[in-house]
Amino acid sequence: MRRAISLYGLTFSLPLLVWQLLFFVFPLAFLVALSFWTVKNFTMRPDFDPVNWVTMFGKPVFWQAYGTTVALAASASALASVLAFPCSYAITFKLSDSARRWAIFLMVIPFFTSYLVRVYSWQIFLSDAGIVNVILGWFGLGPYSMLNTPGATMVGYMTLSLPLVILLQLFSLVFIDRTLIEAAHNMRCGRLRTVFEVVIPSARVGLVIAALFCFILTFGDFVSPVYLGGGDPTTLSILITDTTKSGQQWPRAAVIALTMIGTLLAVAFLAVRFAYAGQAKGARK
Amino acid sequence: MQQTRTTAQTVSRRTFLTTSAAVLATPMLSRRALAADPTELTMLAWYGHAEPDIVAEFEAENNVKFVPKYYTGGDNMLGLISQSPAGTFDVILSDAEYVQALNAAGYVEELDPADYALDDYFPEFQQFPGNWQDGKLFSLVTRFGFLGVAYNTDALTEAEAASYDVFWDPKLTGKVGHFDWHLPNLGQMSLLTGNKIPYDIDEAAWEAVKEKTLTLRPQIGGFFDYGGTFSSLNDGQMLAFAGIGDWITGVLEKNGAKVKSVIPEQGGLQWSECFSIGKGSAKADLAKKWIQYITSAKGQAKSAQMAAYPALIPNQKGWEVLQAENPAEAKRQGMTKDAGNAIDMIRAGRIQYRQWPIQQDLETWNDFWSEYKGA
């Protein structure tokens, strides 16, 4: 049934539409147009030339950075999901209501401080003469080089995404029908088996969405790979800055950015499809 | 009753309008009335150039308030200019290699050489390349510095650091940092492979530079921006750095870090910052006055000691003022009458300008840098 568009309805839906147009569709359209511009003598000229796409896609460095970035973001999503699950599980099923509220509050607190500041403070922990190595030194271990490694980048990625992943997992676990768990126990299903056969499948949508958010956040992140990873290996975000830093090549940077947006859309689409796969069937029954 | 209410409403609305108009107009009126309100002068520059330690005196003397827009890197600067309407920036500070691009794009006004104390400059800087085009002056060099080997004084001696070969030292594996910009790094590699003019090299020499550079890759601990370079040198995470010089280590040194820069035996590079007047500036006279001030002996001495990052200055009389004001800093930077000072190094041919590659495209160099980083 179609309803006529009322002024009342528009009042509430228009701001969202305007916001979307202004801050998403127009910039995206501009980015697409920009990727066909050309650069002569440091000056960008409006043009319609596929040269930037051909050049960027023809560069081994680009595909190398692409592979690195996908691998790093995928690892971060897997790691964050695995690290977050016991935590969100415990908060959901083992804590009292008031303790859970406190736990949620504590998960929100990291967002009070700028991510850049938090990443910079990790340098103090991870550097060769840093806090971690000093403590290891008391036990006669190390020093280990940790800063400027992919491992340090991963630490930064966790700083960025772990609290959010825990929160998202938490909200899906909280809404699991507890009678299902009781039923599993009544049917003599072990605790661990209940987790894998009942809890995780029931919370699948939330768990996948949490991992997806982690992927989105880390895929485009510039701060961790630069300030903890030492800019080595090159990620796509670093490649964008490299591209703009020499010869005013914004159109080529636009190609990288659009490839990243395309990748994220594809990943998000696949993840959502996976998350809801089989559910519609269930609902129809 | 009805009548009264209407009247009351009308009156109150009228009063409201009058009052608010008066309130809104007050700042305008007072701004007109008070001639003491300073004129705003916009400056596009690297961080530090419009900070109080440099501009406070000029601002007070001329009733000016600088409105800085800081950039990091010449491409960033060109981007900001090209995206702003003409006349947005009254004064533009630019690295020498970008002046030609500014000029070619018509972003800067022509300067009259007679307006400035060019006679006080060292002869090398009076006809500074890039400042002049077809006998016309478009920009004036105001400060410069050298790029060599930056090193941690606990880890290396000055003698060890006196060659670019030190970057390959096994004890520095994973401890050599790059300032993440191809031009100074590859220029230094070009000096190391024996090119007299590091940026004017033929294909064979360029291949040799690439080959030599790639052998350095296993030694590298990271590629750092401005902030990352500071912190990794400061906390000893990197023990040697390519592509930088005293403009970074000088600041750290002042704050007690054990780092220094040295110009190695293969020679060093020179960066140079130049002032121009933005095309279409409505305050070109005031902008001219500023450039006169900062290139005068007094302004030059200030510029040499800039809190953000120190630099050498091209004005001989500025050297004299600095020697009188702050002999320690004059000595530290090599701006004294002693043999081996900064100008002697230039005259001995130990310093080459950082510039854009002449026989290759800038893009070729940049692409190789990306490739090197990914190697």
From TrEMBL, chain A:
<dbReference type="Pfam" id="PF00528">
    <property type="entry name" value="BPD_transp_1"/>
</dbReference>
<feature type="transmembrane region" description="Helical">
    <location>
        <begin position="12"/>
        <end position="37"/>
    </location>
</feature>
<dbReference type="InterPro" id="IPR000515">
    <property type="entry name" value="MetI-like"/>
</dbReference>
<dbReference type="GO" id="GO:0005886">
    <property type="term" value="C:plasma membrane"/>
</dbReference>
<keyword id="KW-0813">Transport</keyword>
<keyword id="KW-0472">Membrane</keyword>
<dbReference type="InterPro" id="IPR035906">
    <property type="entry name" value="MetI-like_sf"/>
</dbReference>
<dbReference type="GO" id="GO:0055085">
    <property type="term" value="P:transmembrane transport"/>
</dbReference>
<keyword id="KW-1133">Transmembrane helix</keyword>
<feature type="domain" description="ABC transmembrane type-1">
    <location>
        <begin position="66"/>
        <end position="271"/>
    </location>
</feature>
<feature type="transmembrane region" description="Helical">
    <location>
        <begin position="196"/>
        <end position="219"/>
    </location>
</feature>
<comment type="similarity">
    <text>Belongs to the binding-protein-dependent transport system permease family. CysTW subfamily.</text>
</comment>
<protein>
    <submittedName>
        <fullName>ABC transporter permease</fullName>
    </submittedName>
</protein>
<keyword id="KW-0812">Transmembrane</keyword>
<feature type="transmembrane region" description="Helical">
    <location>
        <begin position="102"/>
        <end position="120"/>
    </location>
</feature>
<feature type="transmembrane region" description="Helical">
    <location>
        <begin position="253"/>
        <end position="276"/>
    </location>
</feature>
<feature type="transmembrane region" description="Helical">
    <location>
        <begin position="65"/>
        <end position="90"/>
    </location>
</feature>
<keyword id="KW-1003">Cell membrane</keyword>
<feature type="transmembrane region" description="Helical">
    <location>
        <begin position="154"/>
        <end position="176"/>
    </location>
</feature>
TrEMBL record, chain B:
<keyword id="KW-0574">Periplasm</keyword>
<dbReference type="InterPro" id="IPR006311">
    <property type="entry name" value="TAT_signal"/>
</dbReference>
<dbReference type="InterPro" id="IPR006059">
    <property type="entry name" value="SBP"/>
</dbReference>
<feature type="signal peptide">
    <location>
        <begin position="1"/>
        <end position="35"/>
    </location>
</feature>
<dbReference type="Pfam" id="PF13416">
    <property type="entry name" value="SBP_bac_8"/>
</dbReference>
<dbReference type="GO" id="GO:0015846">
    <property type="term" value="P:polyamine transport"/>
</dbReference>
<keyword id="KW-0732">Signal</keyword>
<protein>
    <submittedName>
        <fullName>Spermidine/putrescine ABC transporter substrate-binding protein</fullName>
    </submittedName>
</protein>
<keyword id="KW-0813">Transport</keyword>
<dbReference type="GO" id="GO:0042597">
    <property type="term" value="C:periplasmic space"/>
</dbReference>
<dbReference type="GO" id="GO:0019808">
    <property type="term" value="F:polyamine binding"/>
</dbReference>
<dbReference type="InterPro" id="IPR001188">
    <property type="entry name" value="Sperm_putr-bd"/>
</dbReference>
